[in-house]
Structures
1.
Amino acid sequence: MKPQTINFRSKASQTMGDEEVQQAIEHVYTGFFKGRLVAAADTPDWEELRTKGKAIKDHTIAHLDYYLGLLADNVEKNGGSVFFAEDAEEARKHIIDLAHARNIKTVIKSKSMVSEEMALAESLNDEGIETVETDLGEYIIQLANETPYHLIAPAVHKSRKEVAELLDDDFKEGDRVPDATELTMMAREKLRGVFERADMSVTGVNFAVAESGSIALVTNEGNGRMSTTVPRVHVAVMGMEKIIPSIQDLSTMLRILIRSATGQRISTYVTMVNGARKPDEEEGPEEFHLVIMNNGRQKLLADPQMRESLNCIRCGACLNACPVYRKVGGHAYGWVYPGPIGAIVTPVMTGLKDASNLPAASSLCGACHDACPVKINIPRMLLELRYRSAEGSTDSAERTSSASERFVWKSWRIGMMGRKRFDYGAKLARLILRPLARNGWLRKSPPPISGWTSTRDFPLIAAGSLRSRLAKRRKKAKS
Amino acid sequence: MPENPSNPTIPDRVTLFASCMVDQLAPAVGESTVDVLEHLGVTVDFLDDQTCCGQPAFNSGFRSEAFPVATRFIEIFEKVEGPIVVPSGSCAAMVRNFYGDLFRDDERMIGRARNVGDRLYELTEFISSFFGTDAVVGQLSDDATYHKCCHLLREIGIDEQPIEMLSNIDGLNLTPLERDDVCCGFGGAFSVKMPDISSAILDEKLDYIESTGAKTVVAADTGCVYQMQGGLRRRGSDVQVVHIAEILAMSIRNASGAGAKR
Amino acid sequence: MTDRAKFIASVTSSLGRSEVLSPSEEAADASTAVFENADTAKANADRAMSDASERSDTLTAQMAAMAATNGWKVHRAGNPEDAADLIASICEQKGAKSVLRSNHDVLSQIGVDSAVTNTGATLGVTEHDGENSEANIQDAKSAAFTADIGITGVDYAIAETGTVVLHPRSGLSRLVSLAPPTHIAVLRSGEVLDSLDELFAMERNDYLSGDLAGSMNLISGPSKTADIEGTTVTGIHGPLEVHLIILENG
């Protein structure tokens, strides 16, 4: 997927002005966010689980080369094939070639954000291979020709009416809008036949277990199960960081993933696949292919300040907690991963130059850090990327701060480096702004703070600093 | 993180760190802070040279500008001993949690910063740790609600204590604020650089505030106070937003018979 | 250099090293179980099994409660005949014409076949007949997609999460619990594990003894989605209705 991070401000503005979408996005808070809080409160050792999950991921990433080798060996031992893809282009080409080589007519897709990096469904369809998204939310946005809005709920921004327009062949403007159950049953009907005739599936991977070469899939709908059972060829795509060392580790990771994503104790289905169909089974794919993709993750790995972002287990909790995401929506982030996690990985994976608005669009409230099941310190990394955009990047193209911004902070520093100038600066500001003030408040202000008064009143500098007031008190006390 | 020992020696002298915003925009907050601390029997010193901890530039990525300002801050405050108290969770967080990143290439500065940070407290943290949340007893009749400022909550770890302190004010009718732990949208320079997003977040906060029916909103960080007050004023609302230091100081004055002074 | 070698080499250099470093067991607080040897794994699995047996009543009760919360329709059968009767009445209630069952031994034990066929429904058994011809595979698929009800046994259940665990081993199939709109799972008391920890202890032990099943499905309720306006709807791609029959003294 081509990054459109440069359009962040305008897309954000569009979303904030869309009342329907704003109402729809509320569900991530009232549903997922609240759900996680309840599930966490319901889990006596929740904090220990988070600590354990973080330790497992820290360890895995610190030895990622070792565990990649172990995973590949074991997948092959199970009779599967492994393809290491440097980038999305390589991965996409490999899967398309495989589909052609196996004479594939119909591909079913289960949810995979990594496949969005490759724009896989679109590409396969362009090749004349019918490719259908089977996760209901993904199916809806495929029909809408859009990209996912959220990690877990891709169509969260769609109203029921919009879904009806996409799903219900008979729906016309003015008709009663079918309820969610009716629409869901329509989707079930439509996708039934696709499941039956699919000859290849592409799924994501929630966890790849290195010691056994297994993959685990977490779903509620059953499309993940269909995908790992019905077609003769199963392709699983994963980012290279999605590994955990041991089968036993799954109990910790599944607990923190699922409760953080939706608030459920467990998803309806957890499927563990250990290679292709065994000789004495009559069902299941004949072939299992694992595609392990880099596509810029190496940059995160090689970057000590940003490496922790690879611990992400893609639960979406940070999105649900983020006051910015809930206003600007998923598409504003301009690439595959929205929300706080997107704000830190997208600039590194696709380029900070065009994506500098992503880490800037944060009040640094820290709700994401609180929400993260593996305790990723997102605010720290937002600050790091801001530093690089402002002045710190060794690549001059990434240092995108404007001359006026640099001047502002230079002046600020000069003003803060001495008490006298600090006081005089304040007095001068008060002098200048006073004519604009009513009752100590400004309704208009000059740059650099004019953005504030576009929507809020701003206080006038006080008459007399705290220093002067306390000095007066001291004097009074002495007399 | 400063220690909050279970049997702390109760300090009788502290140094006040105003924060640049309180110093020049809201000095009454600083004066109220002094009043409250003195009421608790604590002598408050003020270092005249202080200006800023450097956070605004740091948050905007201009670490080269933040560095000298933060260094100056350390130089000034390491000259005194004993606890330092600041009426701001975000400034306390900057010194304690983020100076490590700012000074990361300088082991010595990290050490000096830690020496200051280890004895630096946000105001409500200081009061609740050393004196208890029931130590300040005051009187103020009002309908109020409390907003949990993000850095105080998540970086310093102060959650319900300010509410407990406010509950101790006789006559203060406290209504819980729905989504009280969701950001007001301030975020420092963010509020000016991306005013549309900042205000959209603020609008939701103000809607919840208005639905409490409260006449006063209490918060512990001046930036958040102004974000909310500025937005309420622009809506034409009469709701007042005050810093917790101010409302505590007022309530103490009322209780001592000195009369309410706003 | 192969693609794999090149790929891994660049990961190694991103980690600031020149060659792959095997993680040491003393890796501080790694929290992963990967260093636990086969003996430990076996001990963990044995402990899980004996716990399941010793606390069978408690765990079964917990499982029943959790499953009900998850949307399973939970039934208790005191003996095999009652279990078969329960299944027959579900078939009648759903007006089932075609029923498919897996080859799990508990189903032969309760004599489900006659109970089902007596309701007038046809009954198919998914069993591997030694041939994986294209025709056989297609037949098996069609049978599953046209059946009204799918019946399976279970390998384990998990009390923590209200889950049944199915290993599609020889003869046991997967679609039978997925494609039909109603799924009936028969659980024997004594098969309920305490939590996910115990399940994965069993799985890890299976793996280390060379006996890991080709796949494993954890099923914790009816299929569902909340992708439309956050409203939860049951029965999107998997079964809309799931029944758990707990056979006491199985």
2.
Amino acid sequence: MKSLKYGMNTHIIPGFAPLDIAANDFNTTHVKVNNALSYACLLAFGVITADTINITVEESTAAATTGAEAIGFGYRLSGDTATDTWGALTTCDSLGATITANDDNKMLWIEVDLAEMSTDCNYLSVLGVTGASMSACVVSAVSFLETRYGQYDPVSTT
Amino acid sequence: MQSLRYGQNTHIIPVIAPIDLVANDITTTHIKVTNALRITYLMGFGVITGDTATITVECSSAATTTSASAIPFTYRLTGDTAMDTYGAVTTCDTDGLLITASYDNMLLMVDVNMSDVADTASYVALSFVTESGMSACLVSAVALVETRYGQYDPLSTT
């Protein structure tokens, strides 16, 4: 694949390994974006039972949630695994997007306009906050960076 | 992200929603590749405990596993979610790739060359077969299809 090519043209970064987080919250691995032209994150959901999960994107000055601030983003929600469909492209403010139990087996594609980041911030992470009643919430995430130039081993984002 | 752009330039297809397979097998949603230039699968692993599994890529004349035949592929494995590192690009024959517990929290890129798909076949799927001793096997997968041309809603692959 010319546009991805084993992570050489588009830097592919494991963001969150598949896990049933139940009523716990999660952050994807922080990604340093100072060598990136654009950033996207693909969240996949399996079974979601009994409550909702709120998704926000956070910027920060270090690879930590300390001092992180939510920023706006754009997203598109897929149909489930059998349908091969996508919903409308939607913009979202810093309050984030809500995923419900109706979104079982769907994927959420998130993109961030890096020009919207604060000048002192170099890191991005996606935060998922589950409702207290969540009994099952299987999620995974992959981050994608469009890098300045392609190479066999991309510049590290850690 | 220019190269992916909310699934408009690269067709993003959910093929396995995050799930703990335990010792069950799974075949991804079949993808019709008649309008595809190339396919990359991203398969994320969470906890893998107790046994191994084998990944193969299959092509078939319909969206079923009936009469499917395995084809070679190439792959690249990341480090775990904390690492942001890649292994070498490696070719794999029709016997497939053995997945062990050491693949915990890693992401596998599987690249399929369309010229390896049989002339009589129009569909491709990824098959994941676990051994009977598997006690936990969290996986998820997405297919990224390089299409002939970009559009807001890509041509269906069902």
3.
Amino acid sequence: MKPDDENVRWIEEPKLGLSGKTYLPLAFEGLTTTIRHLLSRKLTVQFPEERYEAPDPLIYRGVHRLNRDEQGRVKCVACFLCATACPVHCIDIVAAESPWPDREKYPESFTIDELRCIFCGMCEEACPVDAIELTSLFDLSGKSREEMVFDKAKLLSVYDQTEDSEPMKSAQLSQTPRPGETE
Amino acid sequence: MLLFTIIAMIKIALLLAGLMGAAAYLVLVERWIAAWVQDRLGPNRVGIPLTKIRIFGLGQPIADGMKFIFKEEFTPGHVDKFLYFLAPVTIFSAAIAVFAVVPFGSVLPANLGLPADWVPEGLAEPIRLVVAPGIDVGILYVGAMGGIAVYGMLLGGWASNNKYSLLGGIRSAAQLISYEIPLGLGILGVVLATGSLRLDVIIAQQAQTGFWNVVLQPLGFLVLFVAGFAESGRLPFDLPEAEQELVHGFHTEYSGMKLMMYLVSEFIHMFIASFLLVILFFGGWHLWGLTGSGDVVSWPIAIVRVAVLLGKVLATILFFMMARWTWARFRFDQLMALAWKVMLPLGLVNLVVVATWVEYGHRLAALLGLPEPAAMAVCGWGVLVVSWLVVTLAVPATSDNRPRRGPVAGGLPAEEIEVG
């Protein structure tokens, strides 16, 4: 980029008034701002003792979960849309023929590499049956890399754990009718 | 003689312990203030080891110190070993040595306040609370020792044998040398008015008249204040450091205890600037109606004087810390413009005014019909307002340094602009 490029819009700084030129009034104003913050309420959350409460768990992107339907079966239909949408390819699905009559496929295995995941929420957006969702759990940790690859059982257990505190998002967010429901 | 040595040793021990302790704990205070200004809580966890007692994070400085001690002290292979070791030692010992002439209180009572036959004979004279009492060149010594900081920075940058460290060292040296001049001019005004280079005499004189120099020479105070910030390398003048964009400059290659020596001496430079401001302009240990002014004191008065002095210094240091989060760092050309185009002329004006006052002050005071200090204060503040206005209108702060398209008033003609 050259300074005489015609596409460059040249913006001049606003001219300083007398109070700006003499420096002191503005400097004083800055100091009052600092002092106001010095005395203001602090935002720190003292983590192990206090926990961060997501203001809206519906849009928080934490650990994934695999939702269950009313009969306690995994909702996922193994359509691979989440795995396709995933920008870092952290979702690995092995599909198999469904043992249930209401769908053709179900995931025989469903693993998410939580270390690879960037928590963008694309899988959640892509899912046509609202099977995969991001919870507001943020403090996941593990002792090995293998441990951080969550399999289907683990992801379902996350659902069991957060079922009550975070009801399924679909109804609240988009009013998508559930499979089998009529509009 | 033996007694004299013992007393000096005790004072040195007190001073060293006090300085190091103060540096450690003021680092904690600085981190607290940084956190509070940014709406955080700051360090509040480290307490007594192996227990759950936290005591507001007061164990943090010890943990910080331990970290520095046990850190690997890595010496890069390409450095000049001798100078690399010498540089932090130079800057650290020079910073500490300044405090030899800086009073940290007034005097202790004669005979330590006890009946005369209880104490050794040498204690009949009141003990002055300064490591080297009666040094007639006090303030010159402070300036000389303070100047050695430049060597520490330049040596460090040079010995690192790294072009960016060298550039950082040169940058720091340029800043420090530039601001030595306004610093000297600010000090000179006070010295001229007082007629002594001794710091305790300067305090005693303010205590006797009851007029602090900040009231009498506000312009000199302003110059010394800005120069003090610049000399101690604190924001908004922390270009020697500039950790965000210039990566520390001269001490990039240092680690472990050597780095700590640099960091601590930087902190001590801030103490020196605060002590200088308080002693030269804010009356040192003097507070109206509380401390008295003479050399004959009782124990309570002696202690109150120490407390007043240290309290003022602490307040100044807290202001330094608040300033860090208030004003943005100057660009290097702005830094130099401020030193040479603003502070140097202001300092000279102050010097001329004070010199004129010392010569003709009593006549002018008689003419105005005011007592002498009051007349000087009126003059001082008038000169401050006028010269401040003149300087700010004549040398407007330049914030725009972009390469220009086409000719601009005062800028380069279009064809001479280098286009990258």
4.
Amino acid sequence: MAQVLSVPVRSLGASRLVGRILLAITVAWFVFFEAFPFAWMAITAFKQNSDLYNIKHNPFLFNDPPTLEHMQLLFQGTLFPRWLANTGLVATLVVLITLVTAVPAGYSLARLTGGWGRRVGIGLFLTYLVPPSLLFIPLSRLVAILHLQDRLWSLVLVYPSFTIPFCTWLLMGFFKSIPPDLEEAAMVDGCTRLGALRHVVLPVSVAGLLTVVIFAFTLSIQEFVYALTFISPSAQKTVSVGVPTDLIRGDVYYWGSLMGGALVASIPVAILYSLFMDRFIAGLTAGALK
Amino acid sequence: MGESGSAVVVRGPVPAPRRGGGWLTRDRVLGPLLLAPAVLYVFLLVGIPLLLALYLSVSSATTGSPTLQFVGLTNFLRAVNSTIFRSALTNTLIFTFVSQALVIVLSTVLALALEQRFPGRGVVRFLILLPWAAPIALGAIGWKWMFDSLYSVVNWMLRAVHILSPTQFPQWLGVPSLAMAAIIIVHVWRMLPFSAVVILAGLTSIPQEILDAAAVDGAGYVQRLFHVILPMLSPIALIAILFGTVFTFTDMGVVYILTSGGPFNSTHVLASWAFQVGIIAGDLAQGAAVALFLLPVLLAGAVLMLKLAGAAETGV
């Protein structure tokens, strides 16, 4: 009897083991595929040119000692610090514009407008599907008419057009999840609607507001097409355009500095974004599923 | 929460919240008023430009002379008759279809793996999310270096595992077919994390009782996967495909940075060709006409989205 039983039990253990090994291989493969380019950026950024540009060398080893020369060039010999500052300025202003418009709009859709509000909300959400590649030509006309070409203000003006719809949508969801009793009580106590929004609703919505801030901020940093279209002078570029288009002299790519710049600008954004990824996905899928 | 408890007691006898002040504070007025700035902003910077794009596409405007003279469908006819445009249209369809097919399969596998518990899952998740979370222009420039004509690390690895002979140096970005493969690889790399997280969200929302019930009925993992899990995932997988398709179909960053449409304009997509024609060459009208070929897919996406939203509303 014991012998009969032991066979299936052992094979169950074995199949579990096979499952774990398969899982480990699968996960390792995906991590390699997705993260390798960033590891490669890191290796490249600290290698000497003599090591980098030698086809006989194993590219994964530091055949010559690591160097900071590419990073020095990046921070002292290029406009990289300026691009970081430009990007930070644009992103911060976009966040402010987004908050000022999306908070009231989200609240209004959650509380004050009934059925027609829902339709407006879905309409707003759908504009998130309209891509920059459809709009950059007419917007370049608009930017030219307003004399904003080659100025960061063009981006400050245009970026909220894609942050506002999604942030309004996210905030609407957040405000809906707050019990209406809270504001009604405050209004009974003599608060106006706006007073209740400011003193009761916003303090309990910090998580939602933070999500919106991070989302608008990272989207502004990631944007490429508008920044490429509206701005040509090197000094006015943002980091995601400056690095791939400006660290090249003629046909010479400064790969060490290029990869250093790509890495330095990517990782902080990626950390911020990852922390809030689940909330974005929840907002995105809430558009179609409850 | 304590405040709400005490406040409810106070509310008792009062029939309705007091609406102090004048008409400005009434909900019926306040609602549209609070909504207006956001709607206006989006209308002015998405709605109007969309109409302007339609208008430009039937005009003869260039950067030098942006007058809006009506020329009918000339720009569209010129676009359709251009071989580069036709190859850009084909490329856009190929890139989108092939990369989305790969993404949906791979991301389902990845999501099923990430759903399991294993040590270091948080770190793994962060590493896998990197390509989606980092600016795509910077990720793409990393790939451009990995596909370098001489120092390509991809080729080095392929030579190291003897897929390539020691003397082989394939020109990833210099041969049309390889360049297209490279662009597809980068699109898959970029969209896979997004799609996996969406599908993972769908996986975790499958009620445990249903899985337990299937297990009790004797269904093994593979049977549960194909008969319970995957069918229940289809609505959320549709969302992942919808957004993935729209993002890939309209993206120009990857192509612009990897190949700029080359070699010999063989890898252009609609978006990068519209940029080339409309911005670099300055033919606004022609560029607008090319970009408008993106519209049908977007409309289809929007309709699908509305259908899904409608289904969710009626509880189907």
